[in-house]
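Quick sanity check, Alpha/beta fold hydrolase:
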Amino acid sequence: MTSMMDVGDTRLAYTDVGAGSPIVWLHGSGPGATGMSNFGGNLAAFEDHRNIVVDLPGWGRSSRPTTDEPLIFHAAERVCDAMTALGIERAHLVGNSYGGAVAMRLAMRHPERVDRLVLMAPGGVLPADAPPWPKGLEHLFAYMADEKPSRQAMAEFVRLMVFDESLATESLIDERYESSLRAHPELPIPPNFGDLTPDLHRVAAPTLLVWGREDQTVPLAWASKILEGIPNAELRVLPHCRHWVQYERAPEFNHIVSEFLRGGASAAVEG
């Protein structure tokens, strides 16, 4: 059940389920993305937590940002305000791609609000020679730039997100396509997401990076700068997996993240 709240100049959609120590789930920036489309299939494994699943500004049912501020910076402050409005003093943050960047920014600016941080192939930290963009980002930006994107363009995008293309089901493509038409991002291409690189050292929370080895959107090679910059970070790499780790490898993802949030070792593996 989606609820709505006003946080400053923004109306945010969110889902609030479960009870226990809170987790705030932050989705990626792909067309048709929402909090529940990214994480709805994972929540049953975290029912001993209070799960706050947000539609970030500009996606899903949340209002469009009207600001020249970098999108990551803008979204992080709205999420922090939403936590306050929901009576959450401190939470674990789990973020995928763009949502991972929002989680990092919140942890940099408000370290007292963040317990543990889980980042799946997060954005916001680019190598100096990033363009030309990886194939997944090229498709994402092309879709955003198209005033009337086709279902075929969505199908191509979804197939790039998973290693096992059988997971790119017709129903999933339809769901993402219909959602993208309801809330087509009105963003410059490439968007002004913002650069988190200079402040990585400010992330004090224990941080778990989770990456698909075959990611074609935020490549594994980009992980090194984040791993080196965040003082208390570790990396887990899942083979035969692309960008949607939490979807494509849900059982492993749920286990790894549950162990990490409980404070257990997550046996970093690089590959």
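Posting the structure with no commentary besides this: The first helix runs from residue 35 to 39.
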